[in-house]
Amino acid sequence: MADLSKHVVHGGSAVPPAEAWVPFEWEEPKLGKQVFGEVTIARKFGVGGSLTSGFWRTSPNAPGSASDGSSFKNIYSAPLGDETACVIDGTATLTVVSTGKKYTVKPGDIISSPKNLEVLWEIDAPFFKKYWCIWNGTDAVPNPPTELTINSIHDNPAEWIEYHFEEPKEGPLVAGELYFIRSAGTTGTMMSGVWRSGKGIAGTDVDEQGTMSTPYTGVLGDESILLLEGEVEVIETESGKKHLFRAGDAIGLSSGMHVTWVSKGPFSKKLWVITRDVLPSE
């Protein structure tokens, strides 16, 4: 049963006040305590499992950085859970330790890191910033993904899928279209992808300006979002409270909390991660 005390709308900016940034500290299993870069939190929890999101950055003044803002060779194995990240600023080379496979990432690239996969990060000076969402559920998934994968927010697959879903009160609805990046994580249910709405895109309620409105209760799970394009208003049904988000903001919606999602025209686009603390077959 959902914990109703966790029914909140989370939000965060990629450019928060200076005091909102704190050193990023974590325990790397083979190396011990690590401190590198700075982090700010947009989402501290979800309805189930361990779910957090926010922004991470390096600079010449950040903990662990070289004087020019680049890093030394830093191993990061996503020990806190599966991580979905999107590069906002800067470039880096990622090397999977077990295979030696290398990837160069740049703004707009989406990095899907399985929990406990050791990756060597080499960041180019002087700055690097990413949005991140980390998920860790209770039960392990059989045959979990084991590869680092890189996609891009600029990908435009031939087949976008209309998003059809069933709301408990409103019934069957259509809201925009999407494609999947990952369909499973290491624990529980984890999915991610890119979604868009606007003029000429399917939706039960889309006006001539491209503004789309839809009721939404997160029936598939908690949703963590990086808004890539446009403006969105999220209205809490119970309280009437309104939240306005712009491109670059992080948004967190709680599974089971009824809201109205309004994507303002002409277009909106988001990177989404949906998580739920049950295995996909349940």
Automatic annotation (TrEMBL):
<feature type="domain" description="(S)-ureidoglycine aminohydrolase cupin">
    <location>
        <begin position="222"/>
        <end position="269"/>
    </location>
</feature>
<dbReference type="InterPro" id="IPR011051">
    <property type="entry name" value="RmlC_Cupin_sf"/>
</dbReference>
<dbReference type="InterPro" id="IPR014710">
    <property type="entry name" value="RmlC-like_jellyroll"/>
</dbReference>
<dbReference type="InterPro" id="IPR008579">
    <property type="entry name" value="UGlyAH_Cupin_dom"/>
</dbReference>
<protein>
    <recommendedName>
        <fullName>(S)-ureidoglycine aminohydrolase cupin domain-containing protein</fullName>
    </recommendedName>
</protein>
<feature type="domain" description="(S)-ureidoglycine aminohydrolase cupin">
    <location>
        <begin position="82"/>
        <end position="131"/>
    </location>
</feature>
<dbReference type="Pfam" id="PF05899">
    <property type="entry name" value="Cupin_3"/>
</dbReference>
